[in-house]
Amino acid sequence: MLVKSRIKYIQSLGQKKFRDETGCFIAEGPKIVQELLEAGLVKEVYALNEWITENNQLLAGTDTFEVTEADLEKISQLKTANKVLAVLNQFEVTQPVVEKRLLLALCGIQDPGNLGTIIRIADWFGVDQVVCSEDTADVYNPKVVQATMGSIARVKVFYKNLEDWLGQLQATTIYATVLEGADIRTIEKPASGVILVGNESQGISPSLQAFAQVRITIPRKGGAESLNAGVATGIILSHLT
Amino acid sequence: MLVKSRIKYIQSLGQKKFRDETGCFIAEGPKIVQELLEAGLVKEVYALNEWITENNQLLAGTDTFEVTEADLEKISQLKTANKVLAVLNQFEVTQPVVEKRLLLALCGIQDPGNLGTIIRIADWFGVDQVVCSEDTADVYNPKVVQATMGSIARVKVFYKNLEDWLGQLQATTIYATVLEGADIRTIEKPASGVILVGNESQGISPSLQAFAQVRITIPRKGGAESLNAGVATGIILSHLT
Fold it and tell me: Across the strands, what pairs with B133?
C-alpha cells in the first residue's frame, strides 16, 4: 500500500507546475520503463509484484516499490494503468551543439502527442537534438513522454526563444518547411543545419522564416490541405538524412 | 430545440451498429462540413444560428436545423462541440480499381486516429483508394472522420478480406513495408501497384507478406524501435509517388 502523501506526490507530476518544482517526471508501461532503466535514468519504480519479479535484474540499484493494481490506477496518468510507473529526474539543461549536426527546431508544436511523435521520428533518423520554441508543449508532460515510446532517453530537447537562438547561429544552414518552397526531393542531403518545423495551423511565423536560407516543400498531388506536423517531419527527415 | 428522439438518433451514430443500420454517419466542425457540403455529400446540417447565417449560400438545398449550444453539445462526439454537425449518407459500396493506379492496403490499423491520418496522407499524395482488412477501424467512426480533415470526401475506402483480394489480383506489383527490405530511397517510383501497410505492433502478417513481390524498408539511423503507421505511410508515399 502506498501512503496517501506519496500517491498525491506522484499524481502531482501530471502538472507542469509540480514537475518544475520537483525537477521530476513520470513514464509508464513496461516498454518505456525498461528502456529508461537500461539507460540508467530512473529514480524510483512503482510496479506490480509480477513485473518486479520478471525485471529483477534490471531493477538492481533502483528504489522499487511494489504496488497493488488499485494503487497503480491511482498514480497512473494512462486510461488503463500498465504494470509499472517510473519517476525520473529531469535531464540536465545543456546547450544544443550545432557544429556538424542536423537539428530540428519546432515552432509552437502544442499537441503533446505530436511533440512526442516528432521526438520518436528524430530518434529513428538519428537526429538527437530538438530545439523547441517556448510555446511548444512540455517534453515532461506524461502524454509527450508516452508518445516518444522511449526516445526521450536518446534525444535531447531544448527550449529557446527561437529568434534569439537562430540569430546567434553562424555558418549554419537553416531550412524552413513552407508551402511554396523547393521540392524536398530535389534538395541535397545536408551534413549539418537546422530544420524549422511549424505548427499545423499557423506554420512557421514570418519572423522565423526570415532566418531560413533554404525553403522546402513536400509536393502535394491530391486534395488534402495539409499534413500532420509529425508526418511532415518524418517525410522531411527521410529525404534530408 | 431538437426533439429528444432526434438527439438520440444523432447520438446513436457514434456506434457502428447504428451506423450500419441507418447507413449514415456524422462529421463535425466548420472546416470538414464545408468541404463535405461543397462535395454535395451532406444529408442534414445541425448548426448554430451564426454559422448558418455565414454559410447560407453553401447550405442551399440541404436540410438545415438551427440548434442551441446546449443541443449541439448533446449531439456532438467532440470534447468541445464546434458550431456545426452534419449527418451524411455512407458512400456507395464499389470495387477498387487496380489498373494503372497506386493503392494502399491497410492490415489491421485499429486506431481510428491513425486510420484517419493515413486517409489524409493518401489524399495529399493523390492516392484515392485505400483497401482495408476487415479488422481495420471503421472509416465512419467519428474519430476517423475527424482525423481525415475532409479527405474522406475524396478517398474511397474499401473493406476486404485482404488474402482473398490480393490473391485475385493479376499483373499488379504488391509492395510490403517490412523491417528487412530494400531501402525505400532506392526503389523506382511505380506507376501502379498496391502498397501494404501493417499495424504498429504486429506489422504485416506472414500470410499477407507472401503476396508481395517487393519488400521495402525505411532505413533507420537512430535508436527508435518503430515509426507510427501514419508517419511510415507518409514517408513511403513521398518516395513512391
Answer: B160
In tens, the pLDDT along B102-123 reads 999 999 999 999 999 999 999 9
Does the distance separating the beta carbons of A232 and B124 come in below 8 Å? no
**B151 in reach of chain A (CB within 8 A):** yes
A128's CB contacts (< 8 A; 6+ apart) are A101, A122, A154, A155, A156, B222
Count each helix (H run) and each strand (E run) in chain B, helices first: 10, 10
Least CB–CB distance from A234: residue in B125, B153, B235: B235
Measured between CB atoms, does B221 come within 8 Å of chain A? yes
How many other CB atoms are found less than 10 A from the CB of residue B62? 14
Q: CB neighbours (10 Å) of residue B43?
A: 13
How far apart, in whole angstroms, are the C-alpha atoms of residue A90 and residue B76? 39
Handedness of CA B197, B153, B86, B5 (dihedral sign): negative
For A39, which residue in chain B has the nearest alpha carbon? B223
Banded model confidence at residue A176, pLDDT cuts 50, 70, 90: very high
The number of residues making up chain A comes to 241
Kindly list the distances between the CA atom of residue A5 and the CA atoms of A1, A36, A45, A68, B100, in Å, as whole numbers in the listed order.
Answer: 12, 25, 16, 16, 65
How close does chain A come to B139, measured CA to CA in Å? Answer: 17
Beta-carbon contacts of residue B215 (< 8 Å; ≥ 6 apart): B175, B176, B178, B180, B181, B182, B209
Distance CA A132, CA A153 (A): 17
Residue A202 has pLDDT above 90, yes or no: no
The strand pairing partners of A131, in sequence order, are A105, A158
Q: Taking a contact as any Cβ pair under 8 Å apart, which residues of chain B between 67 and 96 contact chain A?
A: none
- Asked whether A36 and A42 are in contact (CB, 8 A), the reply is yes
State the pTM of this model. Answer: 0.91
Crossing angle of helices A229-240 and A112-124, rounded to 10°: 10
- B193-211 exposure pattern, b = at least 16 Cβ within 10 A, e = fewer: bbbbbbbbeebbbeebbeb
What is the set of domains in chain A, with CATH numbers?
Answer: 4-89 (3.30.1330.30), 102-240 (3.40.1280.10)
Which residues in chain A are contacts of B197 at CB distance < 8 A? none
Contacts of B232 in chain A (CB under 8 A): 234
Q: Give the helix/strand (H/E) hosting B151.
A: none
Burial B107-135 (b: 16+ CB within 10 A, else e): bbbebbbbbbbbbbbbbbbbbbbbbbbee
Residue B28's beta-bridge partner residues? B85
With a cut of 0.90, is the ipTM above it? no
Q: From CA A176, how far away is CA A174, in angstroms rounded?
A: 7
